[in-house]
Amino acid sequence: MIFETLAKFLPYLSFMIGASVWSKTGRKPTDDAIIIFIIGAPGTGKGTQSTFLVKHFGLQHLSYGDLMRGLRKSGDPGVSGLKTKPNTGNPSVPDDMGAWLLWREIRNGGLKGKEFWLVDGFPRRPEQIEEWLHLLPPAVLTLYLKCPQDVSKQRVASRGEEAGVEARPEDLNPETAMHRIEEFYNNADFVVAKLEEKGMKVFEVDTNRSPEDVQKELEKIMKPLIKSISSSIQRS
Q1: How many structural domains compose the chain?
Q2: The pTM is what?
Q3: What family is this protein classified in (predicted)?
């Protein structure tokens, strides 16, 4: 019985150990991270546009989906004892644990001063935003990639059929893929509302067009932001 209880709370033990790093100083080692969120349903082009933004603007990239898939394969002791999601097989991570895992990745990513981080696929629920703000700075910008649900579903179906060795297991199963899309849209309005409530800017970007046209709009949004923040850093 004792061992079962310990196993149940092991993930939170890891969280408490991480939190103790700054508890005495009041300053977290990730306070200098400059955060940009990019969110969107499967099939809206997050992966393609994240790759573009990382290369074009020199951002550090952190994918929440890749992190969850990595945890599934790694046997990370920080998530042992957690249930798995039936639709993906990834760990069903509590909101505070999800935020902490991202914090841990940024902390361990060799953060040197003020750096831009593109956090891909997070937040997915409004509750995650509250937990994020306990650990990390507010996002300076959220890019919300949007296209009609039927377009998302068609793209994911094609991706699952054609992706070959690069295919994600969740894309190869049509039922799983559709569930992920519907789950995103069920939460999207609440996520956007919570971000705006917390003072974080959200830019909606229509991705129902060519990737090149989307990239042109992303450049228009990102260039002034990067320039303004970089100038502010140089003056400080």
Answers
A1: 1
A2: 0.81
A3: Belongs to the adenylate kinase family.
